[in-house]
Amino acid sequence: MVKYGLDYTRCRWILPLLLGIGVIFGIIALAGRGWLESQTLPYVQQASLWQNCRRADQGGEWSCESLMGYAWGRAAAATYLVGFLLLVICFALAIIAFAIDTLRFNFIRGIGGLLFVAAVFSVMGLVIYPVKFSSEIEMTGINMFSWAYGFAWTTAIMEICLGFFFCCLPNYEDQILGNVKPTYFYSSP
């Protein structure tokens, strides 16, 4: 006999776990210095969301300037940070929602909506940063948007995908709670 459907008791922590992974990726993106890096030797430029560092030659010292002196730097940092804070709030709300024995599905749909708002803020910051950085800061050599910028995009994509999951989960309320009569398949002799 095979029972088809979602087993709520086994799978209830998958979505909060994925939100936690998104939070970890967001922390890596916020703290990482690899938003923009020189691609080839000599490595002369490295930037984060907060500052841009350069050095004159291979053995020289790095000189850094804050990107918070630019209006676009503050805007990119603020919008991405707001998106990250909303993601952390969604993570806390998901832990609360899935820890309660009686699952409130409208509450879960609200978490999904908040995740879409977080994704909008994150994507705004991720679009402002490269457009204004490449147009207003002189770059030497061949540069690429690197690993920390990739973690930031991964966080934004996870916010969008998990927003869909949280919004669609209430459509399967009866299957999740076990209110649907199971279908058994068997063969007669």
Summary of the model, kept short:
Helix content is 58%, strand content 9%. The chain is of the alpha+beta class.
- Overall mean pLDDT stands at 82
| Uncertain residue ranges | 1-6
| Biggest sheet character | 5 strands, antiparallel
Structural class: alpha+beta
The H/E string reads: HHEEEEHHEHH
Number of strands: 5
- What is the topology, as strand order, of the major beta sheet? 4-3-2-1-5
Overview of the molecule:
This protein is an alpha+beta fold. It has a domain at 22-32 and 71-140 and 147-168. It is 58% helix and 9% strand. The protein has 6 helices and 5 strands; from the N terminus they run ααββββααβαα. Strands 4-3-2-1-5 form a 5-stranded antiparallel β-sheet. Strand 2 and strand 3 form a beta hairpin. Helix 2 packs antiparallel against helix 5, helix 3 runs antiparallel to helix 4 and helix 4 (105-136) runs antiparallel to helix 5 (147-168). The chain is elongated.
List descriptors.
PMP22/EMP/MP20/Claudin, disordered N terminus, about 60% helix, about 190 residues, cell junction, alpha+beta
Summarize the topology:
Layout: H1 8-11, H2 14-31, E1 36-38, E2 45-47, E3 51-54, E4 63-66, H3 71-99, H4 105-136, E5 143-145, H5 147-168, H6 173-177
Antiparallel strand pairs: 1-2, 1-5, 2-3, 3-4
GO biological process, one term: cell-cell adhesion
Transmembrane segments: 12-32, 77-100, 107-131, 151-172
Membrane topology: Multi-pass membrane protein
